[in-house]
Structure formats: structure tokens, C-alpha cells
Amino acid sequence: MAFHWRPGTHHVSAYPWVGQGCSAVLGLDPEALVADPSLLWQCVDPDDRAPLKAAKLKARREHTVLRHRFRITTLQGERRWLELLGYPEPGSADGLWHCLAADISEQQRRLDELLDLQQSQQQQQQRHHQQAHQLAEAHAALLRMSTTDMLTGLGNRLYFEHSLLRAVTLAQRLGRTLSLARLNARGVRGLNARAGLLAGDQALQSLARLLSQRQRNDDIVARLGGVEFALLLPQTDQPSAHQLLAQLHDALLRDDSLVAAGIRMGWGVAECRDADSPDSLMVRAEAALRG
To answer: Tell me: the pLDDT tens digits for 190-208?
Structure first.
């Protein structure tokens, strides 16, 4: 659809000439549009009228090429997308513009389909990311549950055995010192008999907090079960390990709740040897505890 446009007073358009494509694009007779320019605006989608007017005024004010997309409804009720391309006539004293309006409904439909597809893919990717995040969180939660002692929050025996295997392997390969301490919370069974199991559980929790607060960065603390705990002490020989355990016991003796509950701590330490396995190291530490 080709036409000439001459802006009039108060921005009212006038069309000195309209091509025959007007019938195919708008369903309007060209002569009717020349006689009544408002017919075009009646076809323009109400939501697109203000942007179209703004684009025309901007192009007229800046004397630049007009390019704008908008929607129309033909007199026959058909919805279409048009792209308007207009440029001013050089040297025109009355503001004459040459314009072409092309039906881009099919291109716009394909573009909308592409945008819908992209949006659908993005939503699907977001769902996949969310599901992957949820699975990762669930896996992490299961891992924590399987390796955490539920009473004290320390690592459990499974966690400690895995840690011990890695620590022994690393110490022997790199020639580093490693000590293992087995701990026994003494007095818990008597507390259970005197004050009940809840009091005994609270004492174990207090001892676990004490061990956690006093552990060094590379140390590993775990509850093996019942009243037994274990400490892995990397880069620590046997005399140094005994010194650390003595300091822990002194800290226990300064804990009023543990002292009032009658809790004491026994320990045994074994230093890793080249021929040790995780099991043999555990056996020697337990023998030192019982000795």
C-alpha cells in the first residue's frame, strides 16, 4: 500500500494520493481514504494509536525516516500487522511525505511463534535448573543425614571411618604424622540411672559442643556411638595429641554443667605407623583407652 501524506494543521493527516493496495491491505477504497483520512485511524488498534502518532510527530519534527509497526483491524474485521515506512519529499514546501505500508502479519506471526518458543525453552530450562537444584539439595540433605550423629550434630561412625581412611592414606603417602584419639565420656551411665536418659543425652550434647569448640581447623571429631567419641589429629604426633587431650579435659573440668553431672573424660591415643591400616590404628587407640 503506497500513499503520499501531508501533515495538516493540528497534526491532522491528509492523503493527496493513495495506491490501489489500500483495498488489499485495509479493505478501504483509496478514494474513500483520500476523502476521509480519519478512516485509517479508525482501523488502527486503539493501543497502537498513541505510539503511531508519536512516531509520526518525531519523524516530522526531526525530518527523519519514519519506520513503525502497528496493528489494524480491517473493515471486514481481520486483524493485521503493518509496517509503515515514510520519508519526507526533499524540498517540499508543504511537508509532503512518501509512505509505504506493508502487511507483515505473517512475519509477525512467525516472530511471535519464535518468541513463544524461546520463552517456552527458557521456562523449561528454569524448571530443569530448579529441579536440579532441588535434587542437589535433597542429595546434600540425605548425605548429611547419613553422616551426622542426630543427637550431637557431630559426624557419625560412617563419616569418621571414611575420614580415617583418607587421613591414613594421605599421611602414609606424604610421610606426615597423624594421631587418632579414642574418647570415653565417663559418668554418663550413672547420670542416666540417677536423672534419666534425657539428662544423659544433654551431657553428651554438652561434651560434643566442647569438643567442636576446641577442635583445630584440620581436626575431625565424631561420635562413634553410645558414650564413645573419636578425634583425628593430622600433623600431630602422640605426645602432642596427649597434650591436646589434657587441655580438653581441663576445659571439661571448667564446664559447670558437665562437672555437676559428674562427667569425666578418658582417652587413648595411637600414632599412625607406615604399616597401619585404619582398622589397626583404631584397635591400638582403643587398647590405649582401655589400658
So the answer is: 999 999 999 999 999 999 9
pTM: 0.57
Question: In the Cβ-directed half-sphere of 44, how many Cα atoms lie within 13 Å?
Answer: 19
Neighbours of 233 (CB within 10 A): 26
Digit-coded pLDDT (tens) for 181-192: 999 999 999 999
Closest residue by Cα to residue 19 from 29, 10, 9:
29
Find the farthest-apart pair of alpha carbons in the chain and give their distance in angstroms, rounded: 114
Q: Report which residue type is found at 201.
A: D
> Can you list the domains of the chain with their CATH numbers?
2-103 (3.30.450.20), 157-290 (3.30.70.270)
Question: CB of 62 within 8 A of CB of 79?
Answer: no
Burial letters 248-284, b for 16+ CB under 10 A, else e: beeebeeeeebeebebebebbbbbbeeebebeebbeb
C-alpha cell at 42: 479508525
**Which tens digit of pLDDT belongs to each residue from 12-68?**
578 888 888 888 888 888 888 888 888 888 899 999 999 998 998 888 888 889 999
